[in-house]
């Protein structure tokens, strides 16, 4: 696309490939990335060759997001006796990540110095790739990458939607979202994908799930900034679940719910309270086992916890499907660690009583 072409030009202009400075008068360093075009969660191999043995170098990645902000990651390496650095096999001694991290140049990306606070890297258009320029620099560099010419560079494409995945807009029975279907006739296991309090329609997780064989519905249940005025009710999510379950290319007895943050709380709420749907599994990422009185979703996101009450032991015990709880120890929105421990303890108690 034209916009993708412009982004490519912008990234390459910051890390020129022509006129590379070399560490040797005879053979220029060579950087290779394989595969150069792949899914965003597919491991890639980044290798630098033709370096002098024992040379300190910095591997650097640069991405310009759709909001025109720049993101970067970098690791510090020392070439081996053959003059080679492999990000997959070698240790990073510093940078935005350390240790042996094959995907460190992607997962540790952060806004470049001088960016405004509060930025988040989100892919809005899943029909286009993340363009990531990977470069190698002389020495262990920590800043000023734009002012230096790299020894070598390579532009890579990382996709959320694999070839053959169908992207289908859903406007059915009052439900808004996007369904991603894997290639082929199916039937496929299904997922209802429920995002958090940021609002809007977020597609990239469902697109990736569709790329890995799941029919996944990315659900929109309120517009950004409008949750408090939302009049959506509990049955909105039940209806969305049944849209996935009743799809002719979905296995009706293998439909789960995937929730993040506020969506994780709603996932547990559905698993505990709904008498209409029976999820085959639940995945709860960085959430809390709290939910509102009544059934109105607008009560979920009030600024205090007065509108919440805990799903106490016997209610968590109602969940009769496998539950995976994932949390971060540095979560600054929810008490995710305490919540996950409590949910796990109560589910184990239920298993012991059965």
From TrEMBL:
InterPro entries with a match to the protein in the record: AB_hydrolase_fold, Acyl-CoA_thioEstase_long-chain, BAAT_C, Thio_Ohase/aa_AcTrfase, Thio_Ohase/BAAT_N
GO MF, one annotated term: fatty acyl-CoA hydrolase activity
Residues annotated as domain Acyl-CoA thioester hydrolase/bile acid-CoA amino acid N-acetyltransferase: 41-172
Domain BAAT/Acyl-CoA thioester hydrolase C-terminal: 233-294
Domain of life: Eukaryota
Example GO biological process: fatty acid metabolic process
Family as reported in the entry's similarity comment: Belongs to the C/M/P thioester hydrolase family.
UniProt name for this protein: Acyl-CoA thioesterase 16
């Amino acid at each position: 696309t034209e916009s993708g072409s412009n982004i490519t030009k912008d990234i390459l202009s910051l890390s020129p490939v022509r006129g590379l400075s070399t560490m040797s008068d005879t053979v220029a360093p060579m950087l290779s990335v394989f595969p150069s075009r792949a899914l965003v969660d597919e491991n890639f191999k980044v290798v630098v060759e033709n370096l002098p043995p024992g040379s300190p170098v910095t591997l650097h990645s640069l991405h310009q997001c759709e909001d025109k902000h720049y993101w970067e990651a970098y690791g510090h390496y020392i070439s081996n006796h053959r003059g080679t650095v492999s990000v997959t096999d070698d240790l990073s001694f510093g940078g935005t990540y350390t240790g042996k991290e094959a995907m460190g140049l992607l997962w540790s990306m952060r806004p470049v110095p001088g960016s405004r606070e509060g930025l988040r890297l989100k892919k809005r258009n899943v029909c286009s790739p993340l363009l990531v320029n990977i470069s190698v620099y002389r020495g262990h560099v920590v800043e000023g990458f734009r002012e230096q010419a790299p020894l070598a560079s390579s532009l890579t494409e990382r996709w959320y939607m694999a070839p053959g995945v169908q992207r289908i807009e859903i406007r059915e029975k009052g439900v808004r979202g996007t369904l991603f279907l894997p290639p082929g006739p199916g039937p496929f296991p299904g997922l209802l994908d429920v995002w958090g309090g940021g609002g809007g329609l977020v597609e990239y997780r469902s697109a990736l799930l569709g790329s890995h064989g799941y029919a996944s519905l990315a659900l929109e249940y309120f517009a950004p900034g409008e949750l408090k005025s939302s009049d959506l009710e509990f049955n909105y999510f039940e209806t969305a679940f049944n849209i996935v379950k009743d799809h002719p290319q979905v296995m009706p007895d293998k439909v789960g719910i995937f929730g993040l943050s506020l969506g994780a709380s709603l996932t547990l709420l559905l698993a505990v309270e709904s008498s209409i749907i029976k999820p085959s599994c639940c995945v709860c990422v960085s959430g809390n086992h709290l939910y509102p009185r009544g059934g109105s979703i607008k009560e979920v996101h009030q600024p205090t916890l007065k509108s919440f009450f805990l799903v106490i032991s016997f209610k968590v015990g109602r969940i009769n499907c496998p539950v995976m709880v994932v949390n971060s120890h540095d979560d600054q929105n929810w008490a995710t660690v305490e919540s996950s421990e409590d949910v796990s303890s109560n589910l184990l108690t239920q298993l012991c009583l059965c």
